[in-house]
Amino acid sequence: METLPERGSLDATPLPNLLLDLYRRRYSGGLALSREGVEKRVWLRDGVPVLAESNLPSESLGIQLLDAGRITRADYARVVEEVRARRCKEGAALLGLELVAPQELFAALKEQVRRRLLDCFGWPRGSFALDASASPGPDSTAFRCDPLPLAQEGLAIHWGSARIRTSLAPRLDRYPAPSPRLAALAGRLHRDDEVDQLVAALDGGRTLGDVLTGLRQPSSLAAAWVLDAAGAVIWHESPVESIEVGTSSDGAGGAHAEFEIVVGARPAAAPAKARASKGKAAEPARSAPSRESEALRARILALHAKLDTIDHYEILGVERGASPEAVKRAYFAAAKCFHPDALAQIGLADLRERAGALFARLAQAHETLSDPARRRDYDEGLHGEQDLDATRVVQAEALYRKAEVLLRAGNFAAALEFLTPCVQLWPEEGAYQSALGWALYKRMPSDPKTARTHLERAVALDPRDAVAHFRLGLVLRGLGDPGADRALDLARRLDPKVRQR
User: Fold this and answer.
1) pLDDT digits (tens, 9 = 90+) for 19-34
2) Residue 474 contacts by C-beta under 8 Å, 6 or more apart in sequence?
3) Which residues share a beta bridge with 177?
4) Is the distance from CB of 233 to CB of 202 less than 8 angstroms?
5) Which pLDDT value is given to residue 258?
6) What CA–CA distance (Å, rounded) separates 361 from 356?
7) Assign residue 347 a region: left if phi > 0, alpha if psi is -120 to 50, beta otherwise?
8) Which residues are 8's β-sheet partners?
9) For burial by CB atoms within 10 Å, which of 113, 317, 428, 432 has the most?
10) Which portions of the chain are predicted below pLDDT 70?
């Protein structure tokens, strides 16, 4: 097993890969995560996160209970005063003021570990540092957070379908068969009918591309990613006729199964002679640009230049009447060709970002044209601008719904990643402008001036939106603007129970 670096970039080693690798190694110690002034410290025991700290005020225990509606603002003010007077932690203050019962506090602290880690899945970049000597202390209570369902949830919320499919692309034409520990590992994930369908389909008789074709939900695709990373499947180059599956105990609190994880991106296997010598990290094999790689460069640049106007058929390179099998073959071929992680191997690492955008569109095109009903709707939408507008509305609404979940969880930075393209797609919707303005104001560091612009646009689009007026009032108050009270009064007249969401 290669030595894990003590420090690294979350861009090169994404958090889900890092967490599952630490779990495989049964790592005990500290994990520091940082990005743009945000600092988080996580302690692990035997590879399982048990405690987490954050310098974000929005991730304090009191704010968590306040956002959940469990305590009031007056209660929270009492907690802050109690912490200051007694110099104690918020948990002790909550218990001392009898605002929560011990069992409820335990559940809230356990949820806090999950939420603080979950937020980091949405970081587009950042760094990590390991300290095996760090310890939360012998008297600290362990709040175990199973890394498998945590990774599934983080991938589904923050990576989304396109990025997950991009990560799985090198295996699309291979056949996943169950390993002896598939049932145990799958049993720890968040399950629904589609995840059950996924687990049943890992029978060695279908390619991963065929298996993924039937999945529509990000949580199901995330389950496929986690099962792959956790070694729950065995990969074959051709269909497997019959499989004998044994059993393996791997419960969250029981025996652990051994599995291999590639930390960081998943490039194709390197030849043995290219492996790193002892104590040194392996360098990816690179070849000088060839005629073929330069032709691919030109193709990527040409497609990326017209990404906003190209339709699903053109990006896949198929005719309008192409059969589902032809669409699938075209997608598999393009996926291998444009996969961002493979470009560095042929001297095209500088195109990684553009290729990632292309790959996301390829995945969208494949999903749409593989589904008869969605393909029919899409074909009809190609005939007029009205249908094109309808498509943009649907896309914007889907982004907004994802952002709403993150806003309710207090993850404003991650919500911005959905709200920004949402408003770009449909700027005439007041609710979208309101949500974007509020996220800009609440994220760290705050941007109240830009937030004001979007919130003023929101109330202009929908003068009856009490929430937008209330949010604008709070932003204006933060800016010291005398119009704050007028906006807040109007919000309360529109809805006496209004509060920011």
Assistant:
1) 999 998 889 999 999 9
2) 441, 484, 488, 500
3) 234
4) yes
5) 40
6) 9
7) left
8) 128
9) 432
10) 1-2, 136-142, 242-290, 308, 339-342, 344-345, 381-394, 499-501
Helix axes 352-370, 372-381, angle to 10 degrees: 110
Q: Give the pLDDT score at 323.
A: 87
Beta carbons within 8 Å of 334's beta carbon, 6+ residues apart: 315, 316, 317, 362
Structure tokens at 199: 């687990």
The tokens describing 251, both together, are 């419960």
Contact 142, 178 (CB under 8 A): no
The DSSP bridge partners found for residue 34 are 39, 127
Give 286's Cβ-side CA count (13 Å radius).
Answer: 11
Cα-only R_g, the chain: 25
Closest CA to 303 of 334, 327, 330, 326: 334
Residue 236 CB neighbour total at 10 angstroms: 15
Q: From CA 157, how far away is CA 442, in angstroms rounded?
A: 19
Pairing of strands 38-45, 48-54: antiparallel
What pLDDT is recorded for position 404? 87
| Tokens 């390197």, located at residue | 270
Q: Quick one: which of 274, 153, 127 has its CA closest to 217?
A: 153
Cβ atoms of 335 and 172 within 8 Å: the answer is yes
Token pair of 322, please? 């192409």
Position 236 scores a pLDDT of 92
- Contacting residues for 305 by C-beta, under 8 A, at least 6 apart: none
Q: Which of 433, 434, 435, 423 is nearest to 396 (CA)?
A: 423
Q: What is the DSSP string of 182-224?
A: HHHHHTTS---HHHHHHHHH-SSSS-HHHHHHT--SHHHHHHH
Beta partners for residue 175, in sequence order: 236
Lookup result for tokens 């303005």: 437
**For position 137, what pLDDT does the model report?**
59
Structure-token match 């809805």, residue found: 495
Whether residue 451 contacts residue 440, with contact meaning beta carbons closer than 8 Å, is answered with: yes
Closest CA to 261 of 387, 137, 167: 167
Rounded to an integer, what distance in angstroms lies between the CA atom of residue 156 and that of residue 180?
26
Residues whose CB falls within 8 Å of the CB of residue 484, separated by 6 or more in sequence, listed in order? 473, 474, 476, 477
Domains and CATH numbers, the chain: 7-133+141-145 (no CATH), 148-243 (no CATH), 291-381 (1.10.287.110), 385-494 (1.25.40.10)
Helix axes 160-168, 218-229, angle to 10 degrees: 30
Tell me how far apart the alpha carbons of residues 229 and 168 are, in angstroms, rounded to a whole number. Answer: 10
Cα-Cα end-to-end distance for the chain: 47
What's the Cα-to-Cα distance from 329 to each of 248, 304, 307, 317, rounded to whole Å?
A: 36, 21, 21, 11
Count CB neighbours of 482 within 10 A.
Answer: 8
Structure tokens at 501: 């969401």
Q: Helix H segments across 87-177?
A: 90-96, 102-120, 147-154, 160-168
